[in-house]
Specification:
heterodimer, A: 84 residues, 4 helices, 2 strands, 54% helix, B: two-stranded parallel sheet, 56% helix
C-alpha cells in the first residue's frame, strides 16, 4: 500500500497497451482517496515520452464557471502547443 | 481544434470529470490523437467510465482500520504502531479521518511534533465536526496550524508541484529555495545568480 506501488500499477497499465489507438484509462474512487495524486505522479514520471502533454486539473469545477468549456479547451490547446 | 491535435503522441489527463459532455469537448473522438497517445480520466462516477468504454479502470480502494492506523503511525510516530499513551487517541483520529490516505498522512505529520494530549484532543474535536467527504476541510486543520506564511507557501508548493518527485531531488530544491529566501531577505548581500 502506498503511492509508489499504485503509480507503478498505473504506469504499467499505460505501457502494456499494444494497439495503435489511444489508450483510455479511468482512475475511479471517492473524493480524497488520492486519484489526482496518482494521476499527477504517473504524469510526472512518463510525460517526457510524449510529443505533447496536458494535465487539466479540476475539470468538474472549471466546467461550471462562466465560459468554462472554452477556457478548458484553450488551456488544452496552449499546453499542446507549448510542448511542440 | 481537431486539425491541431491530430497525429501527435499526446499524454492527456482530465482530472475530476463528471459529465460526458466534458469528455466530448476535450477529447471528443479519439481520432484526434496520434499513435501511442494516452488519456487518463479521474472520476468519482463509475457509471461514466462504463459509458465511455475505457480500456482499463484502476480502482482506488479505501484502507481498512489496521492499514489506516499503520500509515498514520508512520507519520505521527515514525513507527508502525502508536507510542505508549497515544493508542486510543490515534484510533480516534484515524476513525474520523475517513480512511483517506492523504488526510492520514497530512494529519499524522502535523501531529508528529505535538506530544501534548491537549493538542491532540483539539485536532480530534475539529475532525469530528467535519463530514468524512469534506477532505479539504480536514487537510485545512493542519494547514491552518502552520506557524507562518512561509510555511504555508512551502506546503502548497510541495502539494501542487512536486508530487511523484524523487525525495532527494526535492530536498535539494527545497534547500536551494530556503537559501534563496535567505538571500532575498538580505538585499545588501550579493545573491547567487540563479535566485
Amino acid at each position: 500500500m502506498g503511492v509508489d506501488s499504485r503509480v507503478q500499477d498505473v504506469v504499467q497499465l499505460l505501457n502494456c497497451h499494444e494497439s495503435e489507438d489511444p489508450l483510455l484509462l479511468g482512475i475511479w474512487g471517492m473524493g480524497g482517496i488520492g486519484k489526482t495524486t496518482i494521476a499527477k505522479a504517473a504524469y510526472n514520471k512518463i510525460r517526457r515520452d510524449f510529443d505533447a502533454k496536458s494535465f487539466l486539473l479540476n475539470v468538474r469545477e472549471d466546467w461550471e464557471q462562466d465560459n468554462g468549456q472554452v477556457s478548458l479547451q484553450q488551456r488544452l490547446l496552449s499546453d499542446i502547443y507549448k510542448t511542440t | 481544434m481537431k486539425e491541431r491535435l491530430q497525429k501527435k503522441k499526446i499524454f492527456l489527463v482530465l482530472d475530476d470529470v463528471n459529465k460526458l459532455d466534458q469528455l466530448n469537448a476535450l477529447c471528443g473522438s479519439q481520432e484526434w490523437f496520434g499513435e501511442g497517445s494516452r488519456i487518463i480520466i479521474t472520476t468519482r462516477d463509475d457509471d461514466l467510465l462504463s459509458r465511455l468504454k475505457v480500456h482499463y479502470v484502476y480502482r482506488m480502494k479505501e484502507m481498512d482500520g489496521n492499514e489506516s492506523l499503520e500509515l498514520f503511525s508512520w507519520h505521527a510516530f515514525k513507527q508502525p504502531i502508536p507510542i505508549e499513551g497515544f493508542g486510543n487517541l490515534s484510533t480516534d483520529v484515524v476513525k474520523y479521518s475517513g480512511g483517506l490516505p492523504l488526510a492520514l498522512q497530512v494529519i499524522g505529520s502535523f501531529l508528529l511534533t505535538r506530544r501534548r494530549k491537549k493538542e491532540w484532543r483539539s485536532v480530534l474535536e475539529k475532525l469530528k465536526l467535519i463530514p468524512n467527504d469534506e477532505v479539504l476541510e480536514k487537510l485545512k486543520i493542519s494547514f491552518d496550524g502552520l506557524s507562518d506564511d512561509d510555511m504555508k507557501e512551502i506546503f502548497l508548493d510541495i502539494a501542487f508541484f512536486f508530487i511523484g518527485m524523487n525525495q532527494e531531488d526535492l530536498t535539494m530544491i527545497l534547500k536551494h529555495w530556503a537559501l534563496c529566501r535567505y538571500w532575498n531577505k538580505c538585499p545588501s548581500t550579493t545573491k547567487p545568480y540563479n535566485c
